[in-house]
Design brief:
single chain; Four Helix Bundle (Hemerythrin (Met), subunit A); 5 helices; 84% helix; elongated
Length: 155
């Protein structure tokens, strides 16, 4: 296997991990408030609008992973060495790993926010703010991946 072929394989692996890990976290994370919201909506369907943001918020990490994967794939034609492939692989890890973990925890915070809305509907913004605090780390993971992707020297 040539250096370029292995470099390309590592680059593809990096893109797949960025999108895959963050996407898995989002899928799991959305499940927590989604299940809680279903119970609340069974009692009061008028709360759908208030609960929607709490349910979908953990889905943003999946988008961040997709963006990082897209950036990596956009540079794939320029990869010629194993080292470049390794750099893209490692550049993908912050958004992938942080996205996986933060989406799950954001979902748990979102589920608690759903419970808050069930008892005190006017307090929805507090639940959203608390869930959004977890988002900060997902954004930082995306930024680090973005900087690392753009730091790879391509020939």
């Amino acid at each position: 296997m040539s250096d370029q072929t292995l470099g390309l394989a590592l680059t593809v692996l990096g893109a797949a991990l960025a999108a895959g890990l963050a996407g898995m976290g989002s899928a799991i994370g959305i499940g927590y408030p989604g299940r809680a919201a279903t119970g609340v909506l069974a009692e009061d369907p008028s709360k759908f609008g208030s609960l929607f943001l709490l349910v979908v918020l953990p889905g943003t990490q999946g988008f961040y992973g997709f963006v990082a994967a897209f950036l990596i794939i956009g540079k794939i034609a320029q990869v010629t060495t194993i080292m470049q492939g390794m750099q893209f692989l490692f550049a993908a890890l912050p958004v992938g790993v942080v996205g996986l973990i933060s989406a799950i925890h954001q979902g748990k915070v979102g589920a608690a926010g759903v419970n808050l809305v069930a008892k005190r509907p006017k307090e929805v913004i507090k639940g959203v703010i608390l869930a959004a605090m977890v988002e900060t780390y997902a954004v930082l993971g995306l930024l680090i991946s973005f900087f690392l992707i753009n730091a790879v020297k391509l020939t």
